[in-house]
């Protein structure tokens, strides 16, 4: 195998995705599990094929669901859920974060020609983002829902409802990644 910039980004993205799901309440998922789960999905192939990138939100949503399902299937095959006494169904948010961090690392944090797909990628969701969004009176009626949401326990339906609520509040504009302006890990806010 040639070691090139794409492989370098892939390896780093696997590491960042694994780090993003460490410290979750029922135990972290080892990097090797995340690596196998990403490899079992179509994510790496699509990242390396800009000519196949979707340009509509509905198409991105469909692919996102497919990737999360592929990752959950591999994590289940590896025994991750049984070992941690957490169900596959309640781990959709965790797998969605793996997808979001992988795409963010490979695509958003690296130079690329402008493409609609880059503005449609789902953001990484965690308690820091949800808490900050819930404090913003100007955003929407969804604030109490965001505050009560535990991203590590989201089912598929709950995750899709959360994404829909972000869009309804206009948080997908101008690009979905720009929602992270509200992500303040230090607790400081500049907005």
Describe the structure.
With 191 residues, this protein is mostly helical. It has two domains: 5-120, no CATH class; 127-182, no CATH class. 55% of the residues lie in helices and 0% in strands. Helix 1 packs across helix 2 (31-39) and helix 2 (31-39) crosses helix 4 (57-77). It is globular. It starts with a helix and ends in a 23-residue tail after the last helix.
Which class do the helix and strand fractions yield?
mainly alpha
N-to-C terminal Cα separation, in Å? 46 Å
What percentage of amino acids are in beta strands?
under 5%
Radius of gyration: 16 Å
Order of helices and strands: HHHHHHHHHH
Largest sheet: none
Number of DSSP helical runs: 10
Mean pLDDT: 87
- Strand elements, count: 0
Low-pLDDT residue spans: none
Rough shape? globular
Helix fraction? 40-55%
What is the topological layout?
Elements: H1 5-20, H2 31-39, H3 43-47, H4 57-77, H5 80-84, H6 92-108, H7 116-120, H8 127-134, H9 143-148, H10 156-168
């Amino acid at each position: 195998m040639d070691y090139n910039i794409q492989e370098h980004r892939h390896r780093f993205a696997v590491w960042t995705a694994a780090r993003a799901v460490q410290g979750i309440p029922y135990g972290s998922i080892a990097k090797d599990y995340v690596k196998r789960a990403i490899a079992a999905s179509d994510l790496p192939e699509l990242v390396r094929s800009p000519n196949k990138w979707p340009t509509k939100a509905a198409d991105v949503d469909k692919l996102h669901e497919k990737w999360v399902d592929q990752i959950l299937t591999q994590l289940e095959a590896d025994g991750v859920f049984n070992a941690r006494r957490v169900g596959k169904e309640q781990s959709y948010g965790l797998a969605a974060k793996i997808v979001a961090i992988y795409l963010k690392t490979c695509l958003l944090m690296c130079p690329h020609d402008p493409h609609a797909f880059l503005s449609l990628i789902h953001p990484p969701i965690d308690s820091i983002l949800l808490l900050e969004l819930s404090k913003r009176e100007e955003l929407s009626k969804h604030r109490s829902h965001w505050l009560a949401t535990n991203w590590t326990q989201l089912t598929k339906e709950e995750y899709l409802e959360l994404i829909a609520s972000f869009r309804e509040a206009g948080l997908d504009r101008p690009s979905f990644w720009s929602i992270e302006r509200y992500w303040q890990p230090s607790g400081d806010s500049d907005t």
